[in-house]
Amino acid sequence: MKAVLLVKDYDKETNTLGEIGCREVDKPQIVHDDDVLIKVAYASLCGSDPNLLKGLFPFKAPFQWGHEFSGIIEELGPGATKKDLKVGDRVTGNFYKTCGACHYCRNMMEQFCPYPEENPKAQAQYFVLRESQVYVIPESVDLMDATLIEPFAIAVRAMERADIKIGQRIAISGGGGIGLMIAQLARSAGASTVVVVEPVESKRQIALEMGADVAIDPFSENLVERSEALTKGYGFDAVIEASGNTKAAESCLEIVGKGGTIVYFSMYDMDYNLPLNLFNYCYHKEITIKGMFLAQLVFERAVEMMVRMNLRPLISKVYSLDECKQAYEDQMSGQYAKLVFDCQK
């Protein structure tokens, strides 16, 4: 079968990016009693996928990659009986399996499980997950849209971390796929003002289509002045940083209002430290700053919520697996919201 692999590692000495390629590999087999073999229909690129080429993940070439997908069950292990899954079911899944028994899992913090099983190998024609990781797609959600469920779960959790209330003013920094999903969720949740900050014009247009009231270009507009005008000088009640850009991360501190909340959930450079004046932001303004890692406990609710969402405007291009190099180049350009592989093309 065809699969997208990391075929060359990042070279730290020369700062040369790793390389991605489409290769023929063995079709995965049922190994565990609760395994589920899935024929992958679509797999989307995550905004963090290019970090594989930058050496920010522990995986070494050759390594099969991808974690956002939708597909159809082709085979079930004999022990996959707890969720009433059937051959032919349309499904998606969470690539990150936790143990369920450790301190963190038993205290609703599964994202910190020290014994996870990671299986990010979905950019392929076939893919195996354990039964507990697999979710049936609602009938009204098609397979292409369903490939966005995993990133949508991140958007759902970011909303919950921000603790957004009806009537609040919300800013989203970054108009990538997840940022734009958050814009639509914020509108659905009753935010009075939804603002997306994004330098790419095509993404700003999608932001308005997805429910944002205003889309600001931080390169051509004064972000602080515009934010003050939009919030009557009070600043935003919640700011969600979705770009992974360090300058954008700093600008969030300038537009959040007193008593407001900032959520940082993107992957930033590992050696970056956010400059933070504790007296000004935490003591004087009582800003709440939250981080976020994964979305283990909201995944099932995200699947159910998909019936209320319109995420198709996010999908900018569709590629075959053979076109993976071009897809990754396009992802790294920052010009597109979501890029998708048709894995059977």
**What would CATH call the class of the largest domain?**
Alpha Beta
Q: What low-confidence regions span 5 or more consecutive residues with pLDDT below 50?
A: none
Largest sheet: 7 strands, mixed
**CATH homolog superfamily of the largest domain:** Medium-chain alcohol dehydrogenases, catalytic domain
In CATH, the topology of the largest domain is named: Quinone Oxidoreductase, Chain A, domain 1
Structural class: alpha/beta
Counting structural domains, the number is 2
Could you give the distance between the termini? 12 Å
Number of helices: 9
Q: Strand percentage, roughly?
A: 25-35%
Reading the helices and strands in chain order gives EEEEEEEEEEHHEHEHEHEHEHEHEHE
Shape: globular
Proportion in helices: 10-25%
Question: Over the alpha carbons, how many angstroms does the gyration radius reach?
Answer: 20 Å
Mean pLDDT rating: 96
Task: Please outline the helices and strands.
Elements: E1 2-8, E2 19-24, E3 35-44, E4 63-64, E5 68-76, E6 90-93, E7 96-97, E8 117-118, E9 126-130, E10 134-136, H1 143-146, H2 149-162, E11 169-173, H3 177-188, E12 193-197, H4 201-210, E13 214-216, H5 223-230, E14 236-241, H6 246-255, E15 256-264, H7 278-284, E16 288-291, H8 299-305, E17 315-320, H9 324-333, E18 338-342
Parallel strand pairs: 11-12, 11-14, 12-13, 14-15, 15-16, 17-18
Antiparallel strand pairs: 1-2, 1-4, 3-5, 3-9, 3-18, 5-6, 6-10, 7-8
Helix pairs in contact: 2-3, 2-8, 3-4
